[in-house]
Amino acid sequence: MAPSHNIVEIGSTAALDQIIKNLAKDQLLVLDFHAVWCGPCHAIAPVFQQLADKFPHVKFAKIDVDAQQELAARYRISAMPTFKFIKNAEPIDELRGASPPQLQAKVAQYAGSPPAPKPKPKPAPVVPTGPVEVSLHHLVKADGLKGLGEAADHPLSSIIGPNSGPKGNSYVESASDPQLLLVIPFSKPVKQINAVTFFAVVADYQAPKTVKLFANPPASLDLASADSTTATHELSLSAADIRGNRIELPSAKFKDVSTIAVYIKDNQEGEETTRLDSVEFFGIES
Question: Which residues form the signal peptide (predicted)?
């Protein structure tokens, strides 16, 4: 069965908060709190998908309790699967366990009627626009992608690039020391990099703290020299910065970038190793 376009996999607390904020009045949101290791969760997943296709005016979202522990705590999840029913930003009901009849009944009970179709608006005149900012994730190439100091079983390629895994389930981790040097090449020069996001709340005590960014770094840059080499820009990440929040960069310093290197010097609580679940750059392609 092909995945439903009406189901969103929640990757952060901020992402769920934005979905709830954007709900129309009395619109239903169904949250499926699940776990990779949970057999009943996998068993009821096709039913959840069928409901998402049947009720396109209802929002459906899946939350991995291991990857999103903050959300699991917020909604007091103690068993999987647990389904939460949200309206007007407030939980109105829940269902514990993998019971297709009960899940179908509750969705039907709270779904309401589909909104009346809106009249087609007149096409707006085409207005020329300037360059549009996009995520640069799709430009990252495998050739030259490397993580110096990474653990063999948790490499940089698992979170960024063409072979990266699902967000929340994959991460890069240093092997034995807090330091990591992540070298990220692009398939073509990027005209301008405007911002970056870091997500590392699954193990926030291991999250990066002191970070140096190098635009078009020298080929000789390594862990030994990164600390003493002048960076294009330096960051000191706070607890808020590691939650996927946008961090603005001095874009004038990040122009015509073919490769960007991220040197992580230490982590939030001085742990032996550093863990990062995702890093993403935003800018103008060309």
Answer: none
Query: Whole-angstrom distance between the N-terminal and C-terminal Cα of the chain?
Result: 38
Is residue 128 a part of any domain in this protein? no
CB 264 within 8 A of CB 177: no
Residues forming the active site? 38, 41
Q: List pLDDT tens digits, range 48-61.
A: 999 999 999 999 99
Identify the CATH number of the domain in which residue 252 sits. 2.60.120.470
Supply the pLDDT for residue 117. 77
Output the pTM of the full model: 0.56
Burial (Cβ within 10 Å: 0-12, 13-18, ≥19) of residue 128? exposed
Nearest to 260 by CA among 214, 223, 221, 219: 214
**Nearest residue to 133 (alpha-carbon basis) of 245, 284, 248, 286:** 284
